[in-house]
Design goal:
With 532 residues, this protein is mainly alpha-helical. It contains 20 helices and 5 strands.
Length: 532
């Protein structure tokens, strides 16, 4: 007894010890997991701090390099304040000293003189000599957003826009010039110049007709149609939808005036205080700048980018400083932005603009670009719609063909088709009768012959067999009646089809002149609106 009790206590102690060890293993595993997360977090923080420190060190070195460009940085702030002052009709800030070999210096003076309607040809010429493309972009966009589109010269716009790439890809600045022209920033002549450049890069077979057609709806009646006139009817409906799309786009009166959103955003104050200047040197935005930050794809946004990229010797340094500042602050690194970044292909951008019913300026400009490209296809659709209608049509009924004229179907062919449908309907064949008659006769023989001679049980058997025969005969008669009803329905349906086809053909022939007149009117309207 003592040994048993001792062994039981030992087993219980071992069980408790095993439970404690299991709990200890779980705690150790949890601690290892937590320690791993802490180590990972600490490692990530250390790496982040290391990257920030390295960026800070590099940033300090780069700031020494930019010490020689203090005047250029001040010029950029001055140019930005000049634009804001002009937009808000306030006094211009005091000008600093000129910066040698920097196109923005004479370009800003040229803009001031143009805005005052006293062009400084010497300043314009000096800026063009330093950087003709950037000066052309700057003057064109700045005058556009300041409401001075009448002063934008086509020579500047021609240089600013350049020639689209061979594959039809446009740069960001080309896209902004395009949208600015569409919104009335460069006047009618400037828009015409941009439209011609885009037409030279757009695909002639880019499916413009179907894309334009998707914006319209047809006014044609959708009555009974004939298979033989489906091609003409569909072409006439397409022509109607195209006309509706063109009229819908061009009838929007908003597109006839410059877009108010094109104007340069005004700020609450035009001159930076010392604190503002310090924050500008640190790369921070003042509250006024933050509230009036223009969209990147706008004319004002492109002007900001053009000014902020710096002079040629410092552009790479300024871009690197922006990346290092983001690393130091822990913010996401800014995406590199340049004038020549890809904005997409001409075809893709035209497709997008054509579908923009909420932006009439862009959709109207896109229609002007694709109009001459669409017109040949429209002429082809009109030719298809004007094809002469048939004098007769045909309807198939099984193996029979019925000729339909405007006064009705051919009666001989209709009679043959009707006879073919009804000839075999409702006719009871000998094979069909054999089963019910056989069951009735066999049941009678069993009931009378065997029942009377042998046993009354055979009478019951015979009656059951006769009942099966009678039921089979009733089902056969019902099937015959159903077949007759089906044949009669098919005949009625055939007559209705013939009558409908004859009516549709008569209407088609009777409205030939009206239909041709409508097609001619649609084509003339589309041609006029796409070529003016």
């Amino acid at each position: 007894m003592s040994d048993w009790w001792t062994e039981r206590k030992q087993n219980q102690q071992l069980s408790n010890l095993e439970s404690e060890m299991s709990y200890a293993r779980q705690e150790a595993s949890s601690l290892r997991s937590q320690l791993s997360r802490i180590q990972g977090s600490l490692q990530s923080r250390v790496e982040s701090m290391s990257r920030a420190f390295d960026a800070f060190v590099e940033l300090s070195d780069l700031r020494h390099e930019t010490a020689g460009f203090v005047d250029a940085a001040e010029l950029r702030r001055y140019a930005t304040r000049v634009l804001s002052a002009m937009a808000s009709s306030t006094e211009l800030p005091e000008a600093g000293g000129p910066v040698a070999r920097y196109w923005l210096s004479p370009a800003t003076q040229a803009l001031i003189s143009l805005h005052a309607s006293t062009p400084d040809e010497q300043a314009i010429s000096a800026a063009m000599e330093l950087d003709q493309r950037r000066t052309s972009i700057y003057l064109s966009l700045a005058l556009a957003v300041l409401g001075q589109r009448h002063q934008v010269q086509n020579e500047w716009l021609d240089v600013a826009f350049g020639v689209p790439a061979a594959d039809g890809t446009l740069t960001r600045v080309q896209r902004v010039l395009w949208t600015t022209a569409a919104r009335g920033g460069f006047g009618a002549d400037g828009l015409e110049l941009v439209v011609k450049r885009l037409q030279s890069a757009a695909s002639p077979d880019g499916g413009w007709l179907s894309r334009l057609e998707n914006r319209g709806s047809s006014s044609r009646s959708s009555g009974p149609r004939l298979k033989e006139t489906e091609q003409q009817d569909e072409a006439a409906n397409r022509l109607s939808r195209i006309r509706n799309a063109v009229e819908t786009i061009l009838s929007n009166t908003e597109a006839r005036e410059p877009d108010p959103d094109l104007n340069y955003p005004e700020t609450r104050k035009t001159d930076s205080t010392p604190d503002d200047a310090k924050s500008s040197r640190r790369g921070a935005k003042s509250p006024a700048d933050a509230d009036n930050e223009p969209a990147e794809d706008s004319a004002a946004g492109m002007l900001r980018l053009l000014i902020s990229e710096g002079s040629e010797p410092e552009r790479e340094t300024l871009a690197r400083i922006a990346v290092l500042r983001a690393r130091v602050s822990g913010a996401a690194e800014p995406a590199a932005q340049a004038l020549d970044d890809s904005a997409g292909t001409v075809d893709a951008l035209l497709t997008e603009d054509l579908s923009l019913s909420a932006d009439p300026h862009l959709s109207t400009a896109a229609l002007r670009v694709v109009g001459p490209l669409v017109l040949p296809a429209v002429e082809t659709v009109a030719q298809t719609a004007e094809l002469p209608g048939p004098s007769e049509v045909s309807i198939e009924s099984g193996t029979q063909t019925i000729t339909i004229r405007s006064d009705g179907p051919d009666q001989l062919e209709l009679g043959k088709a009707t006879s073919s449908l009804t000839a075999s309907a409702g006719v009871m064949t000998i094979e069909q009768r054999a089963t019910p008659i056989g069951l009735l006769v066999g049941g009678a023989v069993v009931a009378i012959g065997l029942g009377l001679l042998l046993h009354w049980f055979w009478i019951v058997v015979g009656l059951v067999v006769m009942a099966f025969g009678l039921n089979s005969y009733v089902k056969l008669r019902r099937a015959i009646n159903v077949d007759k009803t089906r044949a009669a329905g098919e005949v009625a349906n055939l007559n209705e089809r013939c009558a409908t086809a004859a009516t549709a053909l008569a209407n088609y022939l009777n409205t030939t002149e009206a239909r041709k007149a409508a097609i001619t009117d649609d084509l003339a309207t589309i041609r006029q609106q796409l070529t003016t």
